[in-house]
Amino acid sequence: MELVCPAGSLPALDVALASGADAVYIGFADDTNARHFQGLNFTPQKAAIAASKVHAAGKKLFVAINTYAQAGAFQRWQRAVDQAADLGVDALILADMGVMHYARSRHPDLNLHLSVQGSATNAAALTFYHQHFGITRAVLPRVLSLKQVQQLAAQSPVALEVFGFGSLCIMAEGRCHLSSYITGQSPNMNGVCSPASAVQWQPKGEGMDTRLQGVLIDRFDATERAGYPTLCKGRFDVEGKRAHALEEPTSLNTLSLLPALQAAGIGAVKLEGRQRGPAYIGQVVNVWRQALDALQRDPTGYHVAPEWNQCLGKHAEGVQTTLGAYDRPWQ
């Protein structure tokens, strides 16, 4: 399986390559990608450097243009597609069908991957994208059980990519109505969840209040590390008890599922974290490189080394991991 790794900067890209990435995915520094945070991502000039570095290393470069084009601004998404094509990237990761149609028409030889933002969860949807836009790969949403992934892999007309490690949020794959409700912006439309301009950190006594657009999201005492205020992971008073009302901060970790995913024919594993720094990238990619190499050497003897999980646990949101929707024993 191909190891697809994130990079939000050139230093992160360098580390990803040195740590064993087979492919690196990046985005441009605007709202055409779903990680449009200040200080992140690549100008056309830096993207050209990235392409040169990746191809010199004999690896692949993917560019995510995976937000939905906004009314009156479609030219920005067209320009992003053209810039990526000019770089000679190995694939575009797209979600918007209008952008996909433009890319297929304008650059017919360019590989197109369906983004997780496309939320295709059945063979009919994958077939539609394959027949109409010629996609060669699809990234599956993190809402499917392992059994459903296996069934879909058996029917899919294109190669499939799944997420291996990274933060989880409410499972609508970027279609965050909560962020939109509070700030007017969401990942799949504006490329950002809980935009930094809406975040307030307010010292309170020896603790800290965090607010989003003025709305109190959480209150931390002096012994706690204050987390970034996202509405879905805030703590609220519910029936007299303060708790994570919607979901706890946690990260997906599918190391233990690698043999099953490989047996199902999954073509690639993606690591989440373009907003993370080089230290995260280096350690997480290194763990997954070791795991995939171990699986390739001895598929039947593969096991998860304790130190792998210890390392990933340190980088997990909330310092805890889960199999997420993959693990549904009642199905």
TrEMBL record:
The keyword Iron-sulfur applies. It holds the Pfam family Peptidase_U32. Its cofactor is [4Fe-4S] cluster. InterPro entries: Peptidase_U32 (IPR001539), RNA/ubiquinone_mod_enzymes (IPR051454), UbiU (IPR043692). One of its GO terms (molecular function) is metal ion binding. The keyword Iron applies. Pathway: Cofactor biosynthesis; ubiquinone biosynthesis. Keywords: 4Fe-4S, Hydrolase, Iron, Iron-sulfur, Metal-binding, Protease, Ubiquinone biosynthesis. [4Fe-4S] cluster binds at C169, C176, C193, C232. It comes from the Bacteria. One of its GO terms (biological process) is ubiquinone biosynthetic process. Required for O(2)-independent ubiquinone (coenzyme Q) biosynthesis. Together with UbiV, is essential for the C6-hydroxylation reaction in the oxygen-independent ubiquinone biosynthesis pathway. Forms a heterodimer with UbiV. Belongs to the peptidase U32 family. UbiU subfamily. This is Ubiquinone biosynthesis protein UbiU. It comes from Simiduia agarivorans (strain DSM 21679 / JCM 13881 / BCRC 17597 / SA1).
